[in-house]
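Predict the 3D structure for this chain.
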Amino acid sequence: MNGPAGLVILFATASLLGQHGSPKAAPGGTAAQEKATQRMTDAQAAELAKEALRAENPTAIRALLGRLKGHTFKSSKVPERELVLYAQGMLEARLGNLSAAAPPLKKLEKQWPKSPFMGEVQTLLAEEAVGQRRFKDAEGRLHRALASDLTSERKRKAQELLLWTLVEQGRPREGMPIVQSLRPLEGNEKPSEKGLAAIVEILGAAGDRAQIEGSRNAFLNLYPKSELLARVNLAYGQTLGRTGDAKGSAEVLRKLIKDHPSSVQADDARLALASLLTDGSLADAKDMPSAESLLAEIRKGGRKLPKGPAQIVELRVLVGKSLWEESLNLAEAMEGGGVPSEPEAKKLWRVAWNAWVAQRLEKGFPGELLARLKPGAFLALEAKGRTGVAELLAFNGLLEALPSLIAEAPAKERPGLRKAALAKVQPEAQPQGVLKLLPLRGDTPDEALARARAEAALERWPQLRSALGRARPGPERMKALLRLLQRPMGKGETQVQRLKEAEGWWARCTEKGELREPLGILVADLRFQTGDARGALALYPAKTAAVDQRGWVALMRAQALLKLGQREQARLQIREARDEQGFKGQRDALARSLGAY
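Done. Predicted structure below.
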């Protein structure tokens, strides 16, 4: 079919011709000439419409169309009006006036929605909608047209127009089933310019290299000067690139840029060529423009790079130049500030992210690290990077940020991350942060020790007592235990009760030697305070390992000996400790009373 002007009225017109009767030739001239001098009836208008639909000469068509448009019907619902409205629309379309064809056809659609002409009407209204870029409207009309009883020729026209609407709406893949169902052309028939261009784009989107090459060659032969030529060549060049022929793709794209430098397709070709240059597809990029220069061409005149593929290309360029921060800014902007979800963007972002974090760890300061640790970012780091971040944040007093981050890490890594972070802090300095970091149950001995130290700093005695039982033995556990036993006396608590508690810890204590000694001195003190001088003397070491405790222990041993009536031994004890530090005033007073020196 060669457009609206070549429409031949078949089934629908024939049915109405039967309905209204055949036109009768008037002697001495045509029916139109006979009626020209008198006002037409509705029936005569219908006969004139049939005659007009058979006309081929544009001048005759305009004259007949003028008479039809000038006729006034008795009522808008008379049956003859259906054919006249149809004829008006068809005649306007034959003259190339689609915008003028639309009003009578829409009236016909509204008044007679089940008209036998409706398939052609919908096709023409869709064509008018396409001209106005109302593609969604056109798509719906074409589906209705294809569902009607169109001839095969008219069906092919509607299908090609539907393919164009899908391509224009960015949905080329949906057109592949239609392409596969197209009726083969016969004789001198040829596809429409837009239809064939749409077929090329659809085959390209499907990656059908063999068929797109044939369709593209057909387009070049049929429409060598078409405005859609750049669009067709772009689809062909992009398909070559996607199917592994990077060199062939580059040649097609460079020629497109040269032949149509100011077209929209030229920018798309520059972008596609830049993509080939940055994704490693082109083994030999000699004599090729750089990806950066191609992107700069797109940006000329203040234009921004389109989202999606253009940003991926720019991201490749930035990563290739090791511009890590710029890479992160672009990648995160693509996702609205978060971790990219598009696979290649995420891959490039991860390279930049790990490198950027490594720089921060090397310099030893967080910088904008916390601001960039969006959900998923900590997990995207390599294991070494996760450990480094945990240590860096802990060291810089940002311990409270770690629990949510460690929760993202693989389960097998979490204990190690907590351990690494805790090794960089003093629990007494950040007790709340330490407690938030530690697991609520199932803690390790090291974690229990950290909890005990934090609870001691917060003076939460029941929690401290619970954690000490699980804590790793050592000097830090002993300090926390002494802190527990030296706490202020509770309301109603007695020295005997405190001694009993201390004796219990002394019996269970697993520390040995010098580590155990401070607890023994404390228990001895409590025994002495409750009147058990003999028991106290049994625990006070003869010479304590802790230098700062020697003066106190000497004083208490002497007092215990006095309590037991061993005055001479007490005098010798105080004399031997004369040069020790600590509690010297008390020891000197006791020595004078004993005549020790």
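Residues 1-37 have pLDDT under 50 and may be disordered.
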